[in-house]
Amino acid sequence: DARVTQTPRHKVTEMGQEVTMRCQPILGHNTVFWYRQTMMQGLELLAYFRNRAPLDDSGMPKDRFSAEMPDATLATLKIQPSEPRDSAVYFCASGSGTSYTEAFFGQGTRLTVV
Amino acid sequence: DQQVKQNSPSLSVQEGRISILNCDYTNSMFDYFLWYKKYPAEGPTFLISISSIKDKNEDGRFTVFLNKSAKHLSLHIVPSQPGDSAVYFCAANDGGSNYKLTFGKGTLLTVNP
Predict the structure, then answer these.
(1) Which of A5, B38, B42, B72 is deepest in the core (most CB within 10 A)?
(2) Partner residue facing A105 (CB), from B41, B45, B105
(3) Looking at the partner chain, which of B34, B42, B105 has a beta carbon nearest the beta carbon of A100?
(4) Contact predicate A94/A102, CB 8 Å
(5) A52-72 residue pLDDT tens
(6) Cα–Cα distance, B105 to A63 (Å, whole number)
(7) A69 with A75: CB under 8 angstroms?
(8) pLDDT tens per residue, range B36-92
């Protein structure tokens, strides 16, 4: 059963702490997206990778957020330092790069920064 | 500035009736539109899409209508079923090759038995 796996599912942390969210894309997929869902903004694209190279991270606050793909099986989104306004659900999605309909979302990481 | 707007945060309908979810957009460069469905504690899943060269696309109980002059699209679900209860997101792309989607804030649909 191919699926995008995100860890952790839930994270509560104190303001100022570093947070790392991980994503295992579906095997063979070469496109990875990071989205953030908030009540105010809905779903926002933070970063987009193709073949492990970042193609668009314009939606990401550069001073505290960073996204990487150390290898084809792992994508990471890091926040340092975290702030209460970062509280949201963070989704990773992967696809084969040929169609939007083939982008599969993970279950998300619910981050709470207190 | 929201380029894709779903002005109804929630909608409640009776089982068997029609559900109509609306979406407006402001960017005239958008030429491909999608609807995603999201259950609690799960990620969004693709539901149906429409290209700007069409004004209607149908898939089973789901139909999406596009009115380009009004910059408006709608999703019709007929007949509605309790299992359709979920958050529905409208999304759009401007035809670039980067597959970047702009999403609305979502509409929570509740179908009552």
Answers:
(1) B38
(2) B45
(3) B34
(4) no
(5) 999 888 889 889 999 999 999
(6) 25
(7) yes
(8) 999 998 999 999 999 999 999 999 999 999 999 999 999 999 999 999 999 999 999
